[in-house]
Amino acid sequence: MSGADTLAHVENLTVRFQRPHPRTVLRDISFTLQAGRILAIVGESGSGKSVTGRSLLGLAGAGAVVTAQRLEIVGQPVLGLSQRAWRRLRGKEIGLVLQDAMVSLDPLRPVAAEIGEVLAVHDIGSRGTRPARVIEALTEAGVPRPEERARQRSGELSGGLRQRALVAAAIAARPRILIADEPTTALDPTVQRQILDLLRTMAERGDAVLLITHDMGVVSAVADDVLVLKDGHVIEQGPAQDILRTPRHAYTRSLLAAVPGHRSGPSRIAETSDETPALAVSGLTKHYPRPDGAPVAVVQDISFTLRQGRTLGLVGESGAGKSTVGRMLLGMTEPDAGAVRLLGDPWSGIAEPLRRSRRAAIQMIYQDPLSSFDPRLTVRDILLDALHAAGLRDKPAALRRAGELLAQVGLPERIIPQSPRILSGGQRQRVAIARAIATNPRVLICDEPVSALDVITQAQVLELLDSLQKRLNLSMVFISHDLGVIGQVSDDIMVLRDGQVVEHGAADAIITAPKHPYTRQLFEAALHLPKAA
Amino acid sequence: MAQFRDLAVAGARRLATRLASGLLVLWVSVTLTFLALQVVPGDPVKIIAGPGAVLTPDAVAALRQQFGLDQPAVERYLHYLLGLAHGNLGMSYESQQPVTTLIFGQLGSSVALTLAALSVAWIVALLGILLTAARSPVWGGLGRGFEVITSALPDFWLGLLLITAFSFKLHWFPAIGRGLSGLILPALALGIPLAGFLGQITRQSFEDAMAQPFALSVQARGASDLRLRLRHALRHALLPGIALSNWSVGWLLGASVAIEQIFARRGLGALILEAVQRRDFPIIMGSVVLIALVYVLVNIVTDGLTFLVDRRSQAGEARA
Amino acid sequence: MMRQVPGPRGRLLTAWLAAATLSLSATAAWAADQPQSGGTITLATFKEPRCLDPTVGGDVPQDIIAHMFTDSLISQTEDGAYHPWLATSWDVTDGGLTYTFHLRTDVKFSDGTPFNAAAVKANFDHWLDPKTGSANIAPQLTNLASVTAVNAATLVVKLKSANAFFLTTLANPSAGMQSPQAMARGNTLNCESPVGSGPFIVQKWIHGSEVIFTRNPNYNSPPPQALHTGPAYADRVVWKVIAEPATRFNALLSGEVGVLNGLPPEDYITAKSSQNIAIIDDFQPGVPWQVDLNTKRAPFNDVRVRRAFRYSLDAPAGLRSIFFGAYQPAGGPLSPNTPFYDAAVEHAYPYDIKAADKLLDAAGWTGRDAQGYRTKNGQRLTVHFPVYASTQPADLALYEQLQATAKKAGFDLQIEKQDDSKVYARQYSWDYDLYIDYWTVNTPGALTFIYDSDGLTSLDGGYHNNEAGISDPHLDALLAAGPATSDPAKQKQIYDEAQQIVSDDALAAPLYVYPSIAAFNTDKVRDVRTDWSVHSVTLYDAWVPKN
Amino acid sequence: MSGVAIIEQAAVADAALHQGPARRGPGFAVYASCFILALVVLAAVWPHVLAPTDPYDIDPTSAFLPPSSAHWFGTDQSGRDAFSRVIHGTRPSLLIGLLSIATALAVGGILGLAAVLGGRAVDHAVARVIDVLFAFPGLILALICIAILGASPVTLAIAVGVGSSGGYARIIRAQGLIVSTSGYVAAARMLGHAPRRILFLTILPNIARPLLPLFTLGIGQCIVWATGLSFLGLGVQPPEAEWGALLADSRSYTALAWWLTVFPGAMIAVTSLSLTILGRYLQARFDGRDAA
């Protein structure tokens, strides 16, 4: 590649931190950013990928010691640059897009002020011409009705618009380099797709994009080149096509394997139609009052039957009513209309004391397991409490059982006296699962159980759920916005939108031949890995 | 334009809510105080007549009638509420002057001191924050230490030290000075401990704001540290402190009781202290009324300040 | 003077003796300067009155205020002689039952109302009106029969019985003449802005802070003792309240305040050594600052215990350390400058723990408990001493010292600091063993107020003057005989015996003579005098030197 | 080409990178505070150990002696040893502080729990009361309480407690709302536990968790307030050596005997400061555990 197109040179970049204790977070990373190309840095959290991006901005963090053989941005060596000189580069030559615009844009200031700031700081345009440039940047970022949006604050915008506004702020001064740090994480698939397309457009216009992500799906969607990082070291580096198709390194392969995808093949359980369904739901409806008092249907007329040992995937974008359905299935929220039957007996519309004795049969796994643990309790207390609820009050027996449960979820027994707070995210979720199965439930409601986890952990937890389901003959309702995950775990899929069922049927059928346009749109937006060579 | 109209409507609605809840607060405080004062033993006539006054039964009856003490409690209560509605808070037992006159006579001095102390508190707190918050651990430690130490300082002790050192010994300030020069020391004595409290709260939110991703975004745009602090983090940092304005003003009113004694200032604190010492119930009731009004007023000002700093909530209400 | 007023006793009756003793060294320095008109005098004192009308209630600060804006009917000099003031002369007839006053006719109150006999009658009516609630003048006029305005210049007052102190009462500043038109407005308004014919006019009362006076430009009625005639020199007088002693004194040092009424004792030495501070250093006649011993209940119902208590107190030591010698110790029932003061009882009770121990042993208080207090039948020798929450710190410190020495004799002296109203309530119900008392009065008749059995009867409201609760027919007889005779030798004999009885019975423990200490900053004001009647500060002759 | 080092000082994004500040152990300040508080407690329980001189023993001949080796804090107007008086003043001051905070937490706890457990209507009403109580000048509320109850150390403590209860009621209510709507309470319900078990084993213990740091912080504040009222003459009886009363006594002598003002006040400040530092530390530990 010609030097003229190289917008950034990075040779043997090493970053050390002195606080709170000395450690090296990045060691000898080298790469270049080329005009018109997207370089993706992939890694799990703690791999050093964010620090890499921030080092290019001179913002590696407090107490960071950044060294390199060569560090050039748009032809200018930047090592040893004064803060003042760095400021001239930031925003003007390099733009930064962070993960969540809700917190990455100043929530107190209108979007226009945020975008305009970069122009004001670099003295681009005049007070009079800047508003026009702000509108232009918003338009470039694909924001419809930019004049109106410019007046709003980030909190008043939808997730997608907000993220575009953030992009607009990053490109307003027309930097040649754009660093996008997890720009689509936690976004709904359709929005994610739009943002990635936007990055692609930037690259095609001749800018260089450094995309930082943990998701191989995102890499495969837009990246030209890939750099795989682990613990501050480069594992693998090269053109995206090569690495995605023929990963040389085992770590890269595990990252790729962790991307959830459709598990093809027939359902696992032989169908026995006369069996009592685990859950039978008919005409489930729930309204909530709007601030002005008028009721809004959050869930409308949902019916399904969950057969024992099977998994129903409940998918939809945020606000689709998935979680409300989950709460009604759990008997935590009473439906306004319709009924839930659990294992053949009425479950909704009965008195709480009646329900209480049967609660053991239906348990839940949360997105954020930590918040579901009493902060005073250790793993042991948590499990004993659950076993107490299940009727096991003999302490030695309960302790033995707790050990078995930990073994079942693949946790070492030594964590039993520990507080969940000091466990990793994956371990916490396993404790939550152990607690859920402690009562010998028949049904598990999983509400986004892996959304907050790293890809590899996510894969492991999904595998654990799968094996437990088989072993314990659990029936599951699996709620997620992630089509990949839903596709992987579900026997049946129900697609929700604005509280209504869009499509409902066997997973295979829906994935391979979605009927409803919305379902199709969802699937088109979803990211897929290229088939391995 | 529609947006502005919505805002105005929302603002007016909020104002109305504040006033209505203020009325409620006023009524509840007056009623509770009235009830509480009923159980205090002792005959108010003794207080009215003054210590050791020679009272004939006629005189007692005259005083009872004059102060409405010959009526049953319920009637006195209704009478008080009626008077309150007309801005009449009754007569002081002690000085036999209208309570409103006495309170208004002290108001100017108290308002001046409260505003001066609030200014001192905010200036000291914000200077400390801007200089030391979200900087190196040494600076942060210094700032934090200053805040913890000042917030633990007894205001009346600080006042004694200040007046002894700067007025009695060094003669930099007058002992009983009026006007600005007399305001400085008491405002410092009140403002410095309050600055410690405000500083702690503000530092927390300032450092939180500086650790938010948007702060990184701002820096990535090439903005200077000062710009980040002043234009972004400070706004966020101000909010919790502003929300505590009512508490701050309440704290100042309370602390001013001792400070006014030390600096020989007149003001509401001194008035209330005397009323309590002499069991001058009408003044106590009047003070409660005044405090309830201050509560409403400060709430409205707080709303206004919050709106200046953070228009999100109002905008949200306007849309709803 | 002007100490904290502990209770109803803080009334100034009339004095025979004047004070106005200026510190000579301070006088010499500026004696050559000539008085000049103009300027503002700031006077600071420790307590704000409830009302500016001196007869509503009746408290020490009100007397000073009365001096500013009123003139009295007659005046007194230090020799005890009566002199004309608003009354040019008077005749006493009918064996002391009829007083005929001849009044000036050229005096106007500052609101323009003329001063005349009708106005004087209106004042008498005002004093006696229950609504006024006069606690100082009205009780002294209980034997009044009638007041008649014969014509504009002549007033006749008839008494039911002879009263040697009647003119004394009229010379009291509290009995200053007020405008009938102003008094007719009712207490509320008259308290705010009373009107008299005095050298200054009440302009504004800023409650809690200050009273502002302006010069009365038409003033033509100074008493004969004044140094000049015509209007006062100062344009304005700001009468400030500064409760905090240290602040008050430092304001004087810095010149923010020109005159200090009530020099804090702890600052006495500093004031004395300051070049520009003049001290008016005197004490007042009457009954000294003392604690009355309640003889109506144990333990002070036993005279041996009372005497033991007196032996156990070492007030002079406390006065030296706390009051820096500014206050003089007192030992007898009357202050040394009171007529018929008997020096024989001054040192009747020196500090003598052994004597106290002996008396207490004899009285049966032989036990000692763990804390070292004496007991009798399992009862601790406890002495309850309610004091006002508003007590000045120096006094409190003195009581604490008394507490400490009394403990050595085995007394558990409990200083019970309470709200003023609560302390009054305890006085009303005899719920105390010690009670603070003093009378600033220039006659031995002060003893009558305190020890006559008439004083046992509670005035309405429960207040009783005889706080010791003593009812001794012989003492009553002596106290009645005193004012009735006009033979000085006889009077001396009577009052000597009375003082002996009070001292022997240990009805009260005197602590110090009531001080009359004022101070002024000579850079800011000159010719501050204490009044020719009751020692309170007067500013009629005072003037502001030009720098 | 040699590597050039850039050392950044900007603290920005620190938290973003490190997922919050590392949990800090108790630093020097915390240890120092604990040491001082240990001394304070010692002074309260066995004052004679620290100050053998009788605090009430007067000696008018040695009044107003400046600090010396014989009298560390000098002597007062009656020649009493000021150090001894300050040390002996610890017990009443501390007791008043403890009784105040106990009252404050009791009143605050009753209001806060009533709001949390009483249902929506009760919460609405109580929340209003709490708001007013919080904004009402605590010291003036305390003054009014004293006007009603009369002045004594106990009523002083109760008055300060009532006066400061608004803040505690607020915190307890807020904590109560967090707990009762928390995931773990929902989880306990979903496990099928009886409501009473959830209330006593989950909700109440978790509401009580922040009380220890609050209590610690609160004593310091209550001591400052109570000494303030005592300073105004509304507290202990003479000659009791309570810190506020000592300060009040010293007022007349500030220009003459600075030591009488400086030491009792410093004692209040240092005690309050130590309690604040310890309380903040406990609070940070508590928050850290919650947030992690």
TrEMBL record, chain A:
Name of the featured protein: ABC transporter ATP-binding protein
UniProt xrefs under InterPro entries: AAA+_ATPase, ABC_transp_ATP-bind, ABC_transporter-like_ATP-bd, ABC_transporter-like_CS, Oligopep_ABC_C, P-loop_NTPase
Subcellular location: Cell inner membrane
CDD domains for the chain: ABC_NikE_OppD_transporters
A Pfam cross-reference name: ABC_tran
GO CC annotations on file: plasma membrane
Main location as per UniProt: membrane
Signal peptide: none
Family: Belongs to the ABC transporter superfamily.
The ABC transporter domain, residue ranges: 8-256, 279-523
Membrane topology qualifier: Peripheral membrane protein
GO molecular function: ATP binding; ATP hydrolysis activity
Keywords noted in UniProt: ATP-binding, Nucleotide-binding, Transport
GO biological process entries: peptide transport; transmembrane transport
TrEMBL record, chain B:
SUPFAM superfamilies with a match to the protein in the record: MetI-like
UniProt main location, coarse: membrane
Domain of life: Bacteria
Entry GO CC: plasma membrane
InterPro entries assigned: BPD_transp_1_N, MetI-like, MetI-like_sf
PROSITE patterns: ABC_TM1 (PS50928)
Molecular functions per Gene Ontology: dipeptide transmembrane transporter activity
PANTHER family (alphabetical): DIPEPTIDE TRANSPORT SYSTEM PERMEASE PROTEIN DPPB-RELATED
Name listed for the protein in its UniProt record: ABC transporter permease
From TrEMBL, chain D:
UniProt cross-references to InterPro entries, sorted A to Z: BP-dependent_transpt_permease (IPR050366), MetI-like (IPR000515), MetI-like_sf (IPR035906)
Domain (ABC transmembrane type-1): residue spans on this chain: 90-279
Gene3D superfamilies the UniProt entry points to: MetI-like
A GO term from the CC aspect: plasma membrane
Localization terms from the record: Cell membrane
Pfam families referenced in this protein's UniProt entry, alphabetically: BPD_transp_1
Keywords linked to the UniProt accession: Cell membrane, Membrane, Transmembrane, Transmembrane helix, Transport
Main location: membrane
PANTHER family: OLIGOPEPTIDE TRANSPORT SYSTEM PERMEASE PROTEIN APPC (PTHR43386), PEPTIDE ABC TRANSPORTER PERMEASE PROTEIN (PTHR43386:SF25)
Protein family per UniProt: Belongs to the binding-protein-dependent transport system permease family.
Name the record gives this protein: ABC transporter permease
